[in-house]
Amino acid sequence: MGKNKGLTDVEKFYLKRQRNWDDAGGFDVSENNEMESREQSRRLKRKRNVEENEIINSKNPPPEHCNRCKKDLILSYLWTSYGVAICDDCKVEHEGDYKCITKTDAKQIYLLKDVDLELRKPPLRFVLKKNPRNPKYGDMALFLECQVEERAYEVHGGFEGLEEARRLAAEKSNKRMLNKVKKEMNKIKKDLKDKEIFNTNYMKLQHQCIYGEESKISEDEYKQSCIQCGHVKKYSKF
C-alpha cells in the first residue's frame, strides 16, 4: 500500500491490471513526481503572491468611493490586486481601460526591464495565474497595462520619449535583421561559388580535350588549343 502512495487514481487503476509495474508501459513515475513538484512550487508562489497583496492592502485601507463612478467602493478586484480604486462595475463597463498584460509583453511593448517593473519604487503589483496555453509552462505574471504604461513614461521621459525609444529599438531591430539577411546572402553566394568551382573542376576532369591545328611558337616549341575548353598544350619537337 505504501508503495502506491503518491500515485494518481489513473495510475493506481492501471497498476491493478499489470503483473509487473517495471515492465509495464504508459507512465513514468519519476516524471509524474517531477510535474507534481513543479505544480506544488507554483501553488506556493501563487499563495505567496496573494498573501503579499493582502499585506499591502492591510497597510493601505481602500478609499470610500470609486475614483470613476464615485459610488461606495464595496467590491474591487483592481484594488485588492493592483491598488487601483475602481469598483468591479466600472471595471466591467470600461474593460478596455483596465486590461492586464503579461510580463513578457510589458517588456517588449513598453521597452522595460525587470528592474523597471519590480525594483523601481514603487514596484508594480502583479497577479500570478496559470498559463492557459499549457499548464506545464510557468505561471504568468499579469500586470495592469495602464500602470505599466505610466511606468514606461517615467522611464523614457513621457510619451515622446517612449515613441523615440521605440523608433530607436525598431532601427536596431531592422539593422540586426539586415545584417542577418546579408550574412545569409553571403553564405548563399559562397555556396554557389564553391559549387560552380566544383562543377568546373569536375567538368575539366571528365572532359577529354580535342586539340586543333598545331602552331609553332619557337624553333623547336609548338602548341595546340582545345577547340572546346581552350586548354593549351605546349610541347617540343627535336
Automatic annotation (TrEMBL):
Supply the alphabetized keyword list: DNA damage, DNA repair, DNA-binding, Metal-binding, Nucleus, Zinc, Zinc-finger
What name appears for this protein in its UniProt entry? DNA repair protein complementing XP-A cells (inferred by orthology to a human protein)
The ranges of region (Disordered) come to 23-59
UniProt feature coiled coil, ranges? none
Q: Which InterPro entries match?
A: DNA-bd_dom_put_sf (IPR009061), XPA/RAD14 (IPR000465), XPA_C (IPR022656), XPA_sf (IPR037129), Znf_XPA_CS (IPR022652)
Describe the location of the XPA C-terminal domain by residue ranges.
98-148
Task: List cellular component terms (GO).
Answer: nucleotide-excision repair factor 1 complex
User: Where found in the cell?
Assistant: Nucleus
Keyword Metal-binding set for record: yes
What family is this protein classified in? Belongs to the XPA family.
